[in-house]
């Protein structure tokens, strides 16, 4: 189904255990030391760009009878690129939009299915559910050992029929609907306009224990006359049942649920993608404008715009998918990690014979002058969540401005958002806070989640997958017992 949002058109959704709460934000300097008072951060800084790039042709396409391909989410996961996008296979029942999956060692493709053949349909409608006909617009992140897919779902081609659902997976291929198969975000119904799309086109990021979702809502008070606008929610759990906050004019505001007036739009557009860029200490929203994909930057609290927009030029017909780490953060540069940040997108470039976007191609460039290694605060922000070899043939994880030495690489992979093959000298200034040895004591409290006890302190971990890989038995404890431990810091996110 066509994903372009035109006023007056009735449009459909085209274009387990969840991670537990963790600490909000990370303050202080290296090793938790108090930072000296800094000068106010400059705003509206112009970023230099270089190394523009584009694929020579289409990088991914559904086979069988697929006639459209758009709305990708792209993850750099280990040594491969993984992509999920919206298409339709006649063999995938029920009839309607399906989410396809393919992978490649290169952004320039070709992206193929898990076994090397054509892309696989991994998620389709659930008859009788809110997403009974259409599942589209995937946004996939990974926290710990669990993949989370936020998607647009619709039961049919009905006005205001689109809502946002959530599914989980151990591998990114086999998905289970969360929240009892119910939508987790729906239209606000603040204002009914000619554009009766509803709510959809989600983009998710995990940062500092918060799940963020940016999305379209054509009924929001803050949307434009044509329904354009992007709205932001965050919560302490993936299904948005705890600690829900909505972004308003004065910042984040606690709300009892995801349905509340939506008054503040971050960009005027549809089908966008969100990413946290540690090297720039900023969020970026990728959205399509006349000449290509525009990159709009916001501070961590969305109170100001620290950089001027940058543009990834080239043809487009539908929203971009940024190439991101599993947690939705920007990957480090393969060249100069202290100066460069890569921005790459995959996007549909033509309207095909079916009248819908297709021909997914890769475009990108580098931003220079990130100053990622300038000063303790920026170094900490830039490399948080990154793991790399230690001098002792183990793995060092950068967490809370310190190093946590992890005996097993497989365990580090559940905690780190990116594992490097070579050590960065810039992290040698971080003190070692703890060592996570095989078989370390792990606990679980019903209202707190999972944790590992290191040197008498309790450090939160995302889920039971870490314990299994570490050969650690999980001890059930009470919330009161959890709270009695000296607190460490979260070891993921």
SSE-based structural type? mainly beta
Helical content class? under 10%
**Largest sheet strand order:** 1-21-20-19-2-3-4-5
Our estimate of the beta-strand percent is 35-45%
Question: Topology, pairings included?
Answer:
Elements lengths: L47 E7 L15 E8 L2 E8 L10 E7 L15 E4 L10 E10 L2 E9 L8 E7 L6 E2 L21 E9 L2 E8 L12 E6 L9 E4 L2 E4 L18 E5 L4 E8 L2 E7 L11 E4 L7 E4 L15 E12 L5 E12 L7 H8 L2 E4 L5 E5 L2 E5 L2 H7 L2 E2 L12 E5 L5 E4 L3 E6 L2 E5 L2 H6 L4 E3 L2 H6 L9
Parallel strand pairs: 2-19, 22-25, 24-26, 27-30
Antiparallel strand pairs: 1-21, 2-3, 3-4, 4-5, 6-7, 7-8, 8-9, 10-11, 11-12, 12-13, 13-14, 15-16, 16-17, 17-18, 19-20, 20-21, 22-23, 23-24, 27-28, 28-29
Describe this structure in words.
The protein has four helices and 30 strands. The protein is mostly beta strands. The relative contact order is 0.15. Helices cover 5% and strands 37% of the residues. The two termini are 35 Å apart. Residues 1-35 have low confidence and may be disordered. The chain folds into two domains: 41-368, Glycosyl hydrolase domain, family 43 (Tachylectin-2, Chain A), CATH 2.115.10.20; 384-484, no CATH class. The strands form six sheets. An eight-stranded mixed β-sheet has the order 1-21-20-19-2-3-4-5, with no helix packed on it. It has a five-stranded antiparallel β-sheet with strand order 10-11-12-13-14, with no helix packed on it. A five-stranded mixed β-sheet has the order 25-22-23-24-26. The longest helix is centred in the last third of the chain and has 8 residues, at 376-383. Strand 28 and strand 29 form a beta hairpin.
């Amino acid at each position: 189904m066509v994903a372009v949002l035109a006023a007056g058109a009735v449009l459909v959704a085209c274009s387990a255990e969840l991670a537990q709460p963790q600490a909000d934000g990370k303050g202080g300097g290296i090793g938790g030391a108090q930072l000296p008072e800094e000068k106010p951060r400059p705003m509206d800084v112009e970023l230099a760009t270089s190394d523009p790039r584009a694929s020579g042709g289409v990088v991914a396409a559904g086979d069988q009878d697929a006639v459209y391909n758009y709305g990708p989410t792209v993850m750099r996961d280990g040594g491969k690129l993984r992509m999920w996008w919206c298409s339709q296979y006649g063999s995938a029942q029920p009839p309607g939009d399906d989410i396809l999956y393919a992978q490649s060692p290169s952004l320039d493709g070709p992206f193929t299915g898990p076994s090397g053949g054509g892309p696989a349909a991994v998620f389709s409608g659930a008859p009788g559910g809110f997403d009974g006909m259409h599942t589209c617009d995937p946004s996939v992140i990974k926290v710990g050992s669990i993949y989370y897919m936020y998607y647009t779902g619709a039961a049919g081609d009905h006005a205001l029929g689109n809502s946002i659902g959530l599914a989980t997976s151990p591998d990114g291929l086999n998905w289970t609907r969360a929240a009892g198969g119910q939508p987790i975000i729906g239209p606000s119904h603040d204002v009914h306009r000619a554009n009766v799309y509803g709510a959809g086109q989600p983009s998710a990021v995990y940062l500092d224990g918060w799940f963020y979702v940016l999305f379209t809502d054509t009924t929001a008070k803050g949307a434009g006359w044509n329904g354009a606008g992007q709205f932001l929610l965050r919560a302490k759990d993936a299904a948005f049942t705890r600690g829900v906050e909505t972004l308003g004019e004065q910042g984040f505001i606690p709300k009892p649920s995801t349905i509340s007036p939506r008054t503040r739009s971050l960009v005027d557009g549809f089908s966008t993608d969100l990413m946290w860029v540690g090297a720039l200490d900023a969020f970026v929203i990728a959205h399509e404008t006349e000449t290509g994909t525009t990159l709009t930057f916001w501070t961590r609290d969305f109170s100001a715009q620290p950089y001027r927009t940058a543009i990834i030029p080239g043809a487009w017909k539908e929203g971009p998918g940024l190439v991101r780490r599993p947690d939705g953060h920007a990957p480090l540069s393969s060249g100069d990690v202290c100066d460069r940040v890569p921005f790459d997108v995959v996007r549909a470039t033509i309207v095909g014979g079916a009248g819908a976007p297709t021909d997914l191609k890769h475009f990108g460039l580098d931003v220079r002058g990130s100053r990622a290694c300038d000063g303790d605060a920026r170094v900490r922000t830039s490399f948080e969540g990154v793991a790399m070899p230690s001098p002792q043939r183990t793995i060092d994880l950068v967490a809370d401005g310190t190093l946590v030495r992890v005996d097993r690489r497989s365990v580090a992979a559940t905690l780190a958002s990116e594992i490097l093959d070579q050590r960065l000298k810039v992290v040698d200034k971080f003190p070692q806070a703890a060592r996570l040895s095989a078989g370390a004591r792990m606990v679980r409290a019903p209202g707190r989640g999972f944790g590992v006890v290191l040197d008498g302190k309790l450090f939160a971990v995302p889920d039971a997958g870490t314990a299994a890989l570490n050969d650690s038995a999980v001890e059930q404890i009470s919330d009161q017992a959890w709270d009695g431990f000296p607190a460490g810091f979260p070891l993921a996110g």
